[in-house]
Design goal:
Blueprint lengths: L4 H11 L10 H14 L8 E2 L1 H8 L3 H13 L4 E2 L5 E2 L34 H17 L4 E3 L1 H8 L3 H13 L4 E2 L5 E3 L4 H22 L5 H16 L6 H12 L9 H8 L3 H13 L6 H14 L3 H26 L11 E3 L2
Antiparallel strand pairs: 1-3, 2-3, 4-6, 4-7, 5-6
Helix pairs in contact: 1-6, 2-4, 3-4, 5-7, 6-7, 8-11, 8-14, 9-10, 9-13, 10-12, 12-14, 13-14
């Protein structure tokens, strides 16, 4: 414990038995794709494999390709020869090297496919998964997030894991204690009430200011989306309700020029987490009142009645506050869901 620290010991213990649900590193994805293509004989055994052309096909830099080729060579899938690059065979003496183009079809890709490897920065690639896991745990107690296990689980560096957690702290989903441990939860009724109190004060004013600048075609599309959910309850889900919430509480407020107030609104989204978990656990309730409340606000905006829209938004938030407090109480009696191993319950 003294040599590695508590997180180091936890990470070592986890590494020996960790599950493989996390996204693989970029080089490992390239390695697996090339290995499958070579073993399936879509890549001719006499074809010379070069870093540059492979990197272009996978939409990545040469570094991950270089590591993938080295690993394939160590595994005996490909071989070196006197020229530059590798041969797509473990027996170089049995073929005559050819430097023909490696094609998307050889790799099992259509010519118009997106790159086979996600080329976004690592933090962007894993952020949504970590946010979902952390948001889910909030309603079920107090958790510590072990940075080393998080990085190992998702196949990223500690620096990337720290960046993701920093973003979550900006959203008030996690915090750091005086020991520099990352903590999440518990989500309390008081915290939910405080967030709604701030939103009731700020969002109607933001909508009143932003409303006149909204595009009518965009508002009509939002209105149609809400009406479609009302007319077809089978389309209602946690994901579709979340999108409607984003339409009203983010897109409709985006022209508000008070930057500090906008930042406060963005940091008061814990109630959205409660409702999302509630809908994921129990489904969207029949006759969910949120839908009619949203439609009323959008109707007022389309009529140019911006004061009425702001008043309707205030009423919606006040009603939603009470619904969310009740839903949080319901969630408290449910068993804790399966969570990634980097989330450790604090007893």
């Amino acid at each position: 414990m003294d040599d590695f620290g508590e997180e180091g010991v936890l990470a070592i213990a986890y590494s020996s038995s960790r599950r493989q649900e996390g996204r693989a590193p970029r080089y490992a994805m390239i390695q697996a794709s090339l290995r499958e293509a070579i073993l399936a004989q879509r890549v001719p055994s006499n074809l010379v494999l070069l870093e540059g052309p492979i990197a272009r096909l996978y939409g990545t830099s040469r570094g991950p390709v270089r590591k993938a080729l080295e690993l394939l060579h160590e595994q005996g899938v490909i071989s070196r020869f006197e020229g530059r690059g590798f041969l797509a065979t473990p027996e170089p003496d049995s073929v005559t090297p050819t430097r023909e183009a490696l094609t998307p079809e050889m790799l099992g890709l259509a010519a118009d496919d997106q790159p086979a490897v996600d080329t976004r920065p690592a933090a962007d690639r894993i952020y949504a998964q970590v946010e979902e896991a952390v948001a889910t745990c909030l309603a079920f107690g107090h958790f510590r997030i072990v940075e080393t296990i998080l990085s190992e689980y998702h196949g990223v560096s500690r620096t990337v894991a720290r960046e993701v957690l920093g973003r979550l702290r900006n959203q008030r989903l996690v915090e750091k204690d005086h020991y520099s441990h990352w903590l999440a939860g518990p989500l309390t009724a008081q915290a939910v009430s405080e967030d709604y109190e701030i939103r009731v004060l700020l969002e109607p004013a933001a909508l009143r200011a932003s409303g006149p600048l909204l595009d009518r075609a965009e508002l009509k599309a939002m209105q149609a989306g809400v009406q479609r959910m009302i007319d077809h309850p089978d389309l209602q889900s946690a994901a579709t309700i979340t999108r409607l919430e984003q339409d009203l509480h983010q897109r409709c407020l985006r022209h508000y020029r008070n930057r500090k107030a906008s930042e406060m609104i963005a940091q008061c989204q814990l109630p959205v987490v409660v409702n999302r978990i509630f809908f994921q656990t129990l489904g969207v309730p029949p006759d969910e009142p949120l839908l009619m409340e949203h439609k009323l606000v959008l109707d007022h905006l389309l009529f140019g009645a911006f004061d009425a829209a702001a008043s309707s938004l205030q009423s919606h938030l006040q009603a939603a506050a009470e619904r969310t407090r009740r839903r949080l109480k319901v969630l408290s009696v449910f068993p804790e869901p399966d969570l990634p191993p980097y989330l450790l319950k604090i007893t």
